[in-house]
Amino acid sequence: MTTTTYAEPTRRHQRHPAPRPSLAWNIADAWVLIGRSLRHTVRNGDALFMGVFLPMMLLLLFVYVFGGALEAGIAQSDYVDYVVPGVILLTAGFSAATTAVSVTTDMTTGVMDRFRSLPITNWIVVLGHVVASLARNLFSTALVVGVALLIGFRPSASFLDWVAAVGVISLFILMMTWVSVMFGLIAKSADAASGFTFFILFLPYMSSAFVPVETMPAALRGFSEHQPITPIIETVRGLLMGTPIGDSAWQAVVWTVGILVIVIPVSARLFRRRTTS
C-alpha cells in the first residue's frame, strides 16, 4: 500500500492580507469620490434647485416682498444689507439637507457594498460628501452674494474682514455638513433623511437673520438669543457691515467647534456600525 504525503504549502502560496492603501492612493480616491458627489449635484435637479436657486429666490422674496412691510426699525433701503448674512446661512442649511439624502442613498442602495469590495478606505466615501458639500455651499454663497450686490447690497468690509467672514461661513458650512452626515447615517431612507434635516432649515427663521430679536415675543426671544445661528449671523453681519459684534464672535466659534467635536465621532461610529453589520 502506498502512502500519499502532502507537502506543506510554501510561503509563496500562503494568503496574505491585502496591503492597506497608501496616502497617495487615499488622496486619489478622495478626489474621485469628491468629483462623484459634485456630478450627482449637477445631475440632480432637486438638489441643484434647493442648494443654489432657492436661496437666491428667497433673497429676492425677503428684499422686495417682505422688506417694505417688516416693521423692525430697518429702512427698506437698508434691509438688503441686514438680510444678506441670514440668507447666506440659510443657503448652507438647504445644501446640507441634500448631503444627508446623498449619504443615506449610498448606505441603502448597495453602493457601499461595491465600495467595500474595492481596495479603498471606506471613510473616504463620507469625506467625498463632506468636501463636495463644502465646495457646493461656497459656490452657492458666492452666487447669493453676487445677486445681493446687484440689488443693492453694499458691505463696508475690508479685505481682512472678508477673509474672516469667509472663515466663519466655512466653519458653519462644515458644521452643518457633518450634522447632515450624521442624520444621513441614522436615516433608513432618503425621505427620512430629508425629514431629519428639515428642522435645521427653521433655525435661521428663529434667529436674527431676518428681523432683530428685540422685536420678537419674550418666549421666542430667549430661544433666538441662545441658539447657535444668531451669534454666527451677528458675527458675519458685523464683519461685512461694521455693526457691533460683541460676544458673538467667540460664541459662534464655541457653538460650531463644540458641535463638530460631538458630531464627527458620532458619525464615525454610525458609519462603522452601518458598514460592518
Automatic annotation (TrEMBL):
Q: Where in the cell is it found?
A: Cell membrane; Membrane
Question: Which Pfam family, any one, appears in the UniProt record?
Answer: ABC2_membrane
Topology within the bilayer: Multi-pass membrane protein
Q: What is one term from the GO cellular component aspect held by the record? A: ATP-binding cassette (ABC) transporter complex
Keyword Transport among record annotations: yes
Q: Which residues cross the membrane?
A: 47-70, 82-103, 124-151, 163-186, 193-213, 249-271
Spell out the protein name for this chain: Transport permease protein
Specify the species.
Phytoactinopolyspora halotolerans
